[in-house]
């Protein structure tokens, strides 16, 4: 049966290509009929350094196709999830769902599906979409998956695709802890790169940007003390060095005049902190700056 990959941006195309490369039958579910036609006719062109390979996959723009199959991976941006999830429906025997969005705001969606297995994942790969049916794999990092029920068997097709180029790991923690850990890293890297207009590596080089990261880490560790040892400042700086040439998704969205995931990433973490009676003034200020830049880019870009 098909594995559906709903959302054909950079991460969706990368995941679809790597799954098909591993021998899985993949069907991309795109936003437009035009993109679906491009992928059906030419597959996905995957670039890794100097190597290019064209990988055959299916494609459709019909959202309802996500209801069937052996697994549906939801890879679209978080702000597109609500409308898409509404089109899937919750029917017994439907495809298991794997959410791989950034942030924590989509966690409550699990309660919408009582008849389907649901899991959440974090993606640490670097990817850049270079065309409607082409993607560059810019950095290898694991996909970690946490099943809501604790039963990973519905998600075996993902684990079968595991390789050194596409590591897929079973998370030891529950979904909220898994997503929060990644979201805290995103809250430190994404808004600072977006506002400063720099690639990830500059955060580790520039003393002023390092100082901002330090203040953010102190603030976030105070709100989420259980994460203080899980997400360290040194660890975030090491991540910036390892992904030095990467442009964060938030900066890429701003440069392209697209809507960012500021609400899903920073807004979700700010909301969790407020629920604990803690404010995050530094992160809130950066969020306001990103939203202001987004509004002005949308108006004038």
UniProtKB/TrEMBL annotation:
Keyword annotations of the record: NADP, Oxidoreductase, Pantothenate biosynthesis
Membrane-spanning segments: none
Xref: InterPro entries: 6-PGluconate_DH-like_C_sf (IPR008927), 6PGD_dom2 (IPR013328), ApbA (IPR003710), Ketopantoate_reductase (IPR050838), KPA_reductase (IPR013752), KPR_N (IPR013332), NAD(P)-bd_dom_sf (IPR036291)
Pfam families in alphabetical order: ApbA, ApbA_C
Enzyme Commission number(s): 1.1.1.169
GO molecular function annotations of the record: 2-dehydropantoate 2-reductase activity; NADP binding
Ketopantoate reductase N-terminal domain span: 3-149
Annotated pathway: Cofactor biosynthesis; (R)-pantothenate biosynthesis; (R)-pantoate from 3-methyl-2-oxobutanoate: step 2/2
Top-level taxon in the UniProt lineage: Bacteria
Domain Ketopantoate reductase C-terminal stretches: 179-291
Catalytic reaction equation(s): (R)-pantoate + NADP(+) = 2-dehydropantoate + NADPH + H(+)
GO (cellular component) term, any one: cytoplasm
Enzyme superclass (EC): oxidoreductase
One GO term of the biological process aspect: pantothenate biosynthetic process
Role according to the record: Catalyzes the NADPH-dependent reduction of ketopantoate into pantoic acid.
Family the entry assigns: Belongs to the ketopantoate reductase family.
NCBIfam families hit by this protein: apbA_panE (TIGR00745)
Listed name of the protein: 2-dehydropantoate 2-reductase
Record lineage: Bacteria, Bacillati, Bacillota, Bacilli, Bacillales
